[in-house]
Each structure stands twice: as structure tokens, then as C-alpha cells.
Amino acid sequence: MISALICVVIGAVVFVEKEMDAIVVGRPNPLTGQPSLNYRHADFDQDGLADILLPDRVLLQRAGEFPAALSVPLPLPLDKPEYDVFDNKLYLRTGDRLEIHRLNGMTWERILGQNIAWPDLLPDENEPPGEMDAEKTHGTLGRYLYDLSGNGVPEIVVPAIEGLHVYANEGRGYTAKHVIDVYPSPKVIFPERTLVWPPEARAITFPPTRLRFRLFLDGNSITVISRSAGLGSLIRRHTSSWLFDVERGYLPRDGGLAASVTAPIPAYLQPCRLNADSTPDFAGVRTYISENSLVPEQIQELVLTTDGGKTLQSFRSKSFQTLCVFVDFDGDGDLDAVVESTGLYKGGLREFLTRSLSERTLPHTIAIHLQDAQGRFSKTPDLLKKLSIKLAQPPFRDGPLFTEYQNGGLVNITGDLNGDRKRDLVVRTHPDRLSIYLNENLAFPKAPSRTLDIAPDARFGVADVDGDALSDIIIYREASLEAGTSRHTIVHFSRRTAP
Questions:
Q1: What is the helix, strand, coil percentage profile of the chain, to 5?
Q2: Strand 82-86 vs strand 140-141: parallel, antiparallel, or unpaired?
Q3: What is the DSSP letter of 31?
Q4: How far is it, in rounded angstroms, from Cα 338 to Cα 316?
Q5: What is the pTM of this model?
Q6: At 266, is the secondary structure helix, strand, or coil?
Q7: Which phi-psi region, left, alpha or beta, contains residue 246 (left: φ > 0; alpha: ψ -120 to 50)?
């Protein structure tokens, strides 16, 4: 069901509330702030407005609305396809076929259909939200279209066991090009021990191999990041980059584009992009129990490097799992560090017991450390925001709201609600209330800019649903049924002006 419900004004921002049960917004990536989504955007009907591509249909947009009458089912062959979109055209790939469709009115028009024997794929552990049911009757959204040649006609890149398979459209359909072998060498896993007795247990076996690496495609360049042993528990990250040479059948250009090896760094640091320079960045979070207090405290430590491991920066927070540790708070294009902490454990044992057994209001602090032009993060916070979060029950009862609080789900600083490129703050300050703080000159006001109602058993997320570059607030409730999970979703669309 898709229907307008209410319109509320928040200063320069207007919220329009609609029911959209098909929308699923998952937890954001903690190193990027980007939420996991079950949809994509494209202008399929060429009217200048972003439409929503779901795994089973397209929702066409009309003046900020998504009327139920303009819901177009996707073409669905017998073999459930993997969909992708490029230049507002729908591509679908099945086990042995490729098709391209464009929308003509309310009907899909096939403009290409051909048989292709695809290779065996590498296993993908990144299942999109809403796609966990093995009995699903629709396709999935994937990423396999890349314009490597820069001519506006995308190539298809398929990661397979033996390498990257590239397919190019040279006017009469897609044909296979070279298999690009840029994977690092696999590591042999030697068994810890081999049985030699009794005699019948003796056997000659080939040890298994393991291949672990990250692969990134950006424009016509490819980057592979692997790891090797360092000192003790530390590792080294190896980064190699190449450009695709279209004239040589998309083989990487000889000599490579760049190669680097980090200094020894902790193994939990993952590759990420914290700024726009060419040096690979790495960051990660570890948790441990502090032994320096009467009450055992869980410490979350954010560790990062922006110079290849030469120097490490770290930030610690007490007893709290931050939803996102990096966001572009000031809108300059570089990510800034977010450190949150709870006041539950502040003081001694008596204060902790009092708060756990009787208090329902928890003090909470958000600290923002901005990144400078040299890739360094400020040691002292550039912003401190203190909040009070009220729970439905005292912490010792371990209610669902307290569990969500511990997992970082009550505080979200990933969205831009008013289009100024700065991150705004959405906090569940009460069991039935969301408080919204707009970013005003790199600071949050003392009182919320506005509040929204939320059902006690609901959750919320922040994402741009309608593709207008304004983040929206998604409130959803889930219920378990015999046939599966029922989901009811309300989207609060951000608008610059009232409709």
C-alpha cells in the first residue's frame, strides 16, 4: 500500500509520510555510513524523476508520489534473474542468458536477448536485505555493469574462480573477451597433524588452499587488496591497481598502475576510503573488557590509518557499539570520525547498580573528530553533543529497546535531511519518539528541531528513498507469521517545500 498520510514541517524541511511496505533499509556500513538497501534508482520512464527498482517491480514516481497504479512488474524468466541497470535500461542475467529491456509506457520492451554460458561465480556473502528467503519467487539486484571503455555502453564483469570474465557489446550483442587474472596467489593450509597410526589411518592428501582478497572496480581501473603475515598478530596489506586496456581485449596494461605494501597493522583493519587521495586507507573496530574499573566495562576502540600504516590513530568509547564510526559530518567530501559513549557505567559500583536497577534515562554523548587536509583526525572532539535517552524499562531487564541501544540502533547520524551536505542527527530519545537535530554550522541545537512519533515496537533507519538527494526517515515494524515475516513500513519523505 502506498498512500500519503500527513505532512509536518521541520524548519526548512517538510516531511511527507507514506506507507511503502516494499522498502527495506538495513544497518549502514560502519566504515562508510552507507545503508544496505533492497532497491536502486533509475529514471525508467525518462520524466526526470528517479523511479525505484525493487527485486520484483519498478515503482514509477509522479511529483513525489509512487502511485500503486504505476507499479510495473519486472520481466521474470523461468530461471530467477539477477538484475542491474545502466542508462535507465534494465539488464537481466540468468544461468545461460542475457536480456536488456527498456520501459515503453507500462510495458517492458526487449531490445536484446542472447544466450551466454556464464562462468562459475565466486561465492558472495553479501546478501542484500530482504533477500534471505531461499523460497523467494523473484530475482535479485546485482552489480555487473561497468563502463570500462568510457563509451557509454557498459561492459559486463563477472568474478569467477579463475579470474574476471569481461563481456563487451560491439554492436551485435555481448561477446566474451579475455579472462583477467589479477587475483593474488592462494595460500596453502597445512594440517596441524597427520595420523600415522593405526596403519589404515595413513593417507596422502593434498592440502587445501585459501584465497582471501578484496577487489574494487572504479571507472576503468581495478584494485586488488590482499594480506600477508606481518609481525606477531599483525599483517601487511598489499594493494595493486591496473587500468583496463580496451585495445588489448581489456587486459590490464603492462606494468600495473600502482602497487604498495603497508607497514604491519592489526588484522581487523579493513580497506576503506576516508579521503580522496591515492593512498589506501584502513580502519577497524575492536572491543575488549576494561580491567581498570570495579565494574567491567566493554570498550570499543576505533583504529585507523591514512598513510599506509606508518601512523595509527585510535579513539575509544565506553560500553557502546557505534552504528557508524565514519560519516562526512561537515560535507567536505572526507569522512570524519564518530565516537559515542554511554553514561551507564559512570561512577562506581553503587552508581552503576542504581542506574541498572531503577533508572530508565541514560546519558549519552556523541563526539565528532573532523579530518583535516593531511588525513589526520583531531585528537580532541570538534563537536560534543550530550543527550538523554529514555528506555521503556531499566537496563537490568534487558528489554528490546536497551538491546537496540547497545547495538547502536537508537542513534543515527548518517543522513542529510535538508540537502546542505552536512550530516543531521536522528535519535530515539523516548520509546515512542524520534528527536531530529539539524546540523547548524557544524553543531546540533540544544533542543530538537522536530520530533516524530514511533510505535514502541518499531525500528527506524535513514536513507534516500525517492532519489532527490535528501535523506528520508524509514520507520518499520516486523511480525513473525507461519508463512514468513510481515513488514509494515512508513517512509517520512524529506521535502524542501510543502506540497
A1: 5, 45, 50
A2: parallel
A3: T
A4: 10
A5: 0.88
A6: strand
A7: alpha
